Amino acid sequence: MSITIHQASVPVFVQGLKGLKGVLAKAAAHVETRKLDPDALLKARLFPDMFPLLRQVQIATDFAKGCAARLAGQEVPAWDDVETGFGDLIARVDRAIAYVEGLDPAAFDGAEDRDITLTRRGETSVVKGLAYLQTQAQPNFFFHLTTAYAILRKNGVEIGKKDYLGTA
After folding, report:
1. pLDDT tens track for 77-95
2. Contact 96/64 with Cβ under 8 angstroms?
3. Nearest to 92 by CA among 66, 72, 62, 67
4. Does the pTM exceed 0.90?
5. Where are the extended beta strands (E) located within the chain?
6. Does domain 5-165 correspond to CATH entry 3.30.43.10?
7. Which residues face 125 on adjacent strands?
8. Where are the domains of the chain?
9. What is the rounded distance in angstroms from the CA atom of residue 164 to the CA atom of residue 121?
10. What Rg do the C-alpha atoms of the chain give, in angstroms?
């Protein structure tokens, strides 16, 4: 039995985003219950040269929506990175879930062989859809999800593996 590129991408992104939403909700409750400055957690990093929590969430949602759009043959929607609080981040995650789920599964037909053109740091490259999903988009998506989770866990938010995994 084979699976479609839609099945290999959209449900994976949605599950990861739902897990992210859950850990962000627990972080917001953690901050409120303990009367902490939310900005301290939103700006927390694992290491000085890494992005803070706020940016990790933005990048994770960008990879989910960007990959899904490209595989569906759509223009990637541009979202301004204007979030400043947990409510804003949760709303962004909800927006990403709605966008990814709203793409027509039929638009993904043939995406594994579709040329995906990427421009990063001024350099353009072309890669096939399946290779893009497996070697670039999903690994980056999971890197930023995991880093967001790790920042929260390191800073005392009571979350575990089940929270990270979200619901299937």
Report:
1. 999 999 999 999 999 999 9
2. yes
3. 62
4. yes
5. 115-120, 123-128
6. no
7. 118
8. 5-165
9. 31
10. 16
